Amino acid sequence: AYIVMEFVRGAMLEAMIVAGVQQNIPMIVQVLRQAASALDAAHAEGIVHRDIKPGNMLLDEMGNIKITDFGIARRMAAGATETQAGFGTTVGTLGYMAPEQIRGEPVDGRADQFSLGVVAYQLFTGQMPFQADSWIALSYKIINEMPTPASTFNPLVSPVMQAALERATAKHPAARFPRCIDFVDALAATVAAKPDASSTLMKKALILLPVAAVVVAIVFGMIWRARDTVTQIGDAPPPPQPVETAAIPAKTEAPAGPVSLAAPPTTAPTAAPSLSLVVDGLPMEFALIPAAQFFMGSDVDTEDQRPRHLVRLTKPFQMGRTEVTQKQWNAVMTGKATGPNLPKANVSWNEVQGFLAKLNALNDGFHYRLPTEAEWEYAARANSPDDRPRNIDDMVWHQSNSGQVAHEIATRIPNAFGLYDMLGNVAEWTADWADLEYYRSSPAADPKGPKTGTTRVVRGGNFDSQPMNLSVTWRFADAPDAKFPEIGFRVVREQK
């Protein structure tokens, strides 16, 4: 037996959020209108989806929205309720659930409307309306608290649109709109819609959308280009495909000197030009991290992680998908490799600057550096409101599963940005000087740490960290010339 399913060439709507389409209000409204019409059609047949979220909404190449995964859909029945051993049972994705769904009460189409309202909030702001450190706290917020107005994060959200969002996500079903399309009509009341232009932009978005991670491969010894690929972003995203390359000189016995690329990469697959100082190729993959805003730090952990504060990263950047390996280090520097694919550790912050200087000598149009603290934390969060991953044993090498030794890179599963080992294996140097009080006065836009200091910030756990201590907000510091087997680094690059 088998099931025949439609193949949809396109992307999950989640990719649209990562792409940062918050400024294109007409396009967002058009997407929501299609989703609302589809949901109302299902509701007219007595079917409630119960798991509306960007990961279950496909945007095809023509700009059409398709709602998927009706696996937990139920027919509406008067007076019906779901119970198990006398207790309400909830199904769905918690961050998108309506209050009545969390409580295990009967649901109708207005529960899907609530979820669509959450999706709309995400599209307008780039973040979830309800965020908390545990499922209990998140459930409480959804049931009892109102989210920060979307207009706080996006001034293009008018008072009329804000009122529509608040009604769609009202705590009681009776306070919501009768139908999903009524919600979108209310949103669109003050939007100067341009259907043709919006449709064109939507099609362009499918080409430009970043995926779970859009990979940029730096290759030691060769240049190639693969065609752009859009893939699903979800709870366990697949490894992204290489789409862009540059070349790095490898260490050889030939006379030292600067090596530059004969030509930049082109759109079509192209063989590398002959480079006299380049030997066997060695890839270093990067993921594209979008510009975004998020809450950094924690109000419930140690003092150095406080206060939790809003940060805006105004430019996208590319972060290494893995920690730099011993083999990658030795290709441009010197050293003894105990394991080619083990992370390069026992390296000081100052020594890392030498490695970065070699990369910057490429003059390939990119600047290579360490991530700032803010960039590191956002990349580690990967758009999640959680400070600690729920599947930590699958994602992180830590004290309880590592044998208290470092492991080869990319042997655990990546986060939603396609980054490996952000919280484990080895901790990682960042660019920032350390200051216990910096969070209390740091700028909201692109914070780069104190101007001076005596120690540099280190982020992430390592193979000897206890699981209970692993958090995207955890931070410590060491002297720039210090070396430890538990500390390595990963590289960020940005266009000059």
Give a quick set of tags describing it.
496 residues, alpha+beta, 19 strands, 26% helix
Strand order of the largest sheet: 9-8-10-13-19-14
Number of domains: 2
Provide the helix percentage. 25-40%
Average of per-residue pLDDT values: 77
CATH architecture of the largest domain: Alpha-Beta Complex
* Assigned CATH superfamily of the largest domain: paralog of FGE (formylglycine-generating enzyme)
Low-confidence stretches: 71-90, 193-280
Number of helices: 13
Largest sheet: 6 strands, mixed
β-strand amount = 15-25%
* DSSP strand count: 19
**CATH fold call of the largest domain:** paralog of FGE (formylglycine-generating enzyme)
User: Which structural category fits the helices and strands?
Assistant: alpha+beta
The radius of gyration over CA amounts to 24 Å
- Cα separation of the termini: 55 Å
Shape verdict: elongated
Could you walk me through the main structural features you see in this protein, from its secondary elements to its overall organization?
The structure is a single chain. The model is unreliable at 71-90 and 193-280 (pLDDT under 50). This protein folds into two domains: 10-207, Transferase(Phosphotransferase), domain 1 (Orthogonal Bundle), CATH 1.10.510; 210-496, paralog of FGE (formylglycine-generating enzyme), CATH 3.90.1580.10. The chain is elongated and about 70 Å long. It is α+β, with helices and mostly antiparallel strands. It is 26% helix and 15% strand.
